[in-house]
Amino acid sequence: MPASFLVGTQRITDRGRLEIGGCDAVELAAHFGTPLYVMDEQEIRNKCRAYKQAVETLIPGGKVVYAAKAFQTLAICRLVADEGLSLDIASPGELYTALQAGFPAERIIHHGNYKSREELTMSLDAGVGRIVVDSEIELDTLNELAAARGSSADILLRLTPAVDPHTHEFIQTGKVDTKFGFGIATGQAAHALKKALALPQLNLCGVHSHIGSQLLDTDSFELAVELLAEFLKSAKDELNFESAEWNLGGGLGIRYVRDHRPPKIDAFVGKLASAIREQFGARGLATPRILLEPGRSIVGEAGVTLYTVGVVKHVPGVRKYVSVDGGLSDNPRPALYDAKYSALVANKSNVTELERVTISGKHCETDTLIENIDLPPLEPDDILAVQCTGAYNYSMASNYNRFTRPAVVLVNAGQAEVIVRRETLDDLISHDEVPARLQ
Prior knowledge:
Layout: E1 11-12, E2 18-20, E3 23-24, H1 25-32, E4 36-40, H2 41-58, E5 63-67, H3 74-82, E6 86-89, H4 92-100, E7 108-110, H5 117-126, E8 130-133, H6 136-148, E9 153-160, E10 182-183, H7 188-198, E11 202-208, H8 219-239, E12 245-247, H9 265-282, E13 289-292, H10 296-299, E14 303-315, E15 319-324, H11 333-337, E16 343-345, E17 355-360, E18 368-375, E19 383-387, E20 407-412, E21 415-420, H12 425-429
Parallel strand pairs: 4-20, 5-6, 5-13, 6-7, 7-8, 8-9, 9-10, 9-11, 11-12, 12-13, 15-17
Antiparallel strand pairs: 1-2, 2-3, 4-14, 14-15, 14-19, 16-19, 17-18, 20-21
């Protein structure tokens, strides 16, 4: 299987079939239909535990905060809560989902570059643990809202350290030219810090930074540590402010294809811990409480999307196209930022004869899921399993071309349970309205 690899609890059975969480992928496709998101519960739990153990061992007092934007449902919120992690949310919908799941509000951190008054009120009412402030307007609004209710708000300031993380430009968030946070290099961070300290209803607990996503080494993180340590040294010298907390964000990448080699979780946390001790120690600063916000690296490799092959079309002298029953609406990432994936044929996983094909979706676009991948010869009704689709696939799914969004099943120890039901055609029109004059 040169084009693919196995992760988590996946294995190939004696029948040559892909098995995930003890469940036969071909049988899952037959029972639940395709496209189908399959999430490996044990793999998610293992990643939560790996982060928690690494942080507790290497960064005493640190916390792991799961980034809900990667993949959030009621069931996943309960799983993450059960594993003792906190939760990062960035919208009213993500907050509502967490609260409806019974996630402890004090373990929720609210992000976002534009939080409306209603959103901020919702977080204050819920009693979330931290609000990460992203602009001066938000500082003023939050101070006003807290004053009106006779309370205060615990906040972090989001800072941008001007680090180029060498990932796709659409998922770089810590450069100078970004909509997020207060720039250190531009002087905005120092100004915002001074203002936050002066606002009476705001309790400034510390700072936050996030440099980007799908990072495959620690170099950019280590540079961010150095830049933030230098900024906090200036803050102590000039404003007598010492940051009690520092949320380093997330961004650790996963292995979408064979040549991706992200560091293991314990190695990643160890490198950060070492850099923090070195940079803060060199400046005579006490080490703040460290928070990490992984998302993709917890759920990404736990996800597989199953498709049914429908059409095989050979363009002589060019390529062979294999069309499946999903695509852009259930996975927009290849179109958004040229994301790469591996795959295998769930019902032919032990076939060694391979041919090069391009996997296409069925939407009215070019809609290429995987270009030039070597797979066993594909025929209609084969089940294609695209690996590592646990992060940002369900989250970004749409109804483009009026496609219904797929179901999500959670598999564990041979049991498969629906955690998101498949949308129906009636669901598609459930919010449509026809004006009286058109009836």
